């Protein structure tokens, strides 16, 4: 899988499960329920028949494997992320170059089984941005997705949703699993990661996603991602061996 420019894949689904990893760049995946951002070294599981859209942010290199329905039932019915090990990535890259309809040798079959065992052994991380299903709350979430820098407070969004502040806070937390303020912060950082992956300047990104200063943005960015904005940009541009 290699894309040199930004690309958007319209809403679609697969009859088989899909495991794909990113070696360079960043790719976003959106379902009706949540949004995932997959960066270098990360691997995403996508179940069969799950409608989704995908978007690459700048140049992307990676790999993709389709998993038959029988094996797919062994995994979660919801997407999840894992951190790829060097062994898993090397196995996946070799397997991804093999046509699905070719006759596999015994050694290739053993490689596939080894990849599967390695993948199953990795700890799963549900690092995503969940979206509420309530129509009133969904309008708020969609509006903020379009403009993460919107500075309106909880009480303003409660009015927008035609709810009391108390009901807004309670229902938003129940549907997303996090407080509204934490949800908005994660949304802003995900949006910033996309922009940084495209090579946009840190200062402009910080202001565009709603932070008053690059310093405040950098502190929150490091807290959530574990990297400084500059280090994250460098990581996205760096190509892993074989990707």
UniProtKB/TrEMBL annotation:
Signal peptide coordinates: none
Keywords: DNA-binding, Repressor, Transcription, Transcription regulation
Cited Pfam families: HTH_18
Tree of life domain: Bacteria
HTH araC/xylS-type domain mapped to chain residues: 138-235
InterPro entries (UniProt xref): Homeodomain-like_sf, HTH_AraC, HTH_AraC-typ_CS, RmlC_Cupin_sf, Tscrpt_reg_AraC-type_HTH
GO molecular function terms noted in the UniProt entry: DNA-binding transcription factor activity; sequence-specific DNA binding
Protein name, as recorded: AraC family transcriptional regulator
Organism: Acetobacter senegalensis
Lineage: Bacteria, Pseudomonadati, Pseudomonadota, Alphaproteobacteria, Acetobacterales
This protein's encoding gene: araC
């Amino acid at each position: 899988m290699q894309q040199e420019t930004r690309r958007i894949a319209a809403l679609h689904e697969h009859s088989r499960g899909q495991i794909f990893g990113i070696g360079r760049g960043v790719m976003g995946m959106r379902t009706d329920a949540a949004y995932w951002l997959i960066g270098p070294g990360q691997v995403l599981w996508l179940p069969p028949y799950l409608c989704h859209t995908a978007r690459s942010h700048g140049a992307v290199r990676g790999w993709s494997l389709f998993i038959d329905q029988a094996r797919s039932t062994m995994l979660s019915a919801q997407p999840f992320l894992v951190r790829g090990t060097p062994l898993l990535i090397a196995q996946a890259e070799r397997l991804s170059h093999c046509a699905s309809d070719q006759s596999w040798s015994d050694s290739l079959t053993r490689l596939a089984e080894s990849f599967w065992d390695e993948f199953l052994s990795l700890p799963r991380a549900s690092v995503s941005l969940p979206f509420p299903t309530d129509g009133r709350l969904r309008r708020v979430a969609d509006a903020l997705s379009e403009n993460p820098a919107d500075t309106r407070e909880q009480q303003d969004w409660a009015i927008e949703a035609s709810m009391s502040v108390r009901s807004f806070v309670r229902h938003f937390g129940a549907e997303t699993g996090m407080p509204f303020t934490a949800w908005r912060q994660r949304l802003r950082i995900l949006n910033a990661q996309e922009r940084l992956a495209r090579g946009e300047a840190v200062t402009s990104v910080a202001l565009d996603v709603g932070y008053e200063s690059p310093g405040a943005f950098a502190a929150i960015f490091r807290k959530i991602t574990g990297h400084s904005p500059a280090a994250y940009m460098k990581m996205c541009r760096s190509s892993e061996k074989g990707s």
